[in-house]
Amino acid sequence: MAGSETEPATTRKRGLFVSFEGGDGAGKSTQINRLADRLREQGYAVTVSREPGGTPGAEAVRHVVLDTSAAEPFGPYLEAMLFAAARNDHVEQKIRPALQKGHVVLVDRFMDSTRVYQGASENLDPAFLETLERVAVAGVIPDLTIILDLPPEEGLKRAHARRDPDAQADRYEKEDVAAHEVRREAFLDIARREPERCRVVDASGTPDEVAGQVWEIVQDVVAKAGLATGSDSPWNDDDPVIRRLGFRK
Ligand code: TYD
Question: pTM of this prediction?
Answer without folding.
Answer: 0.86
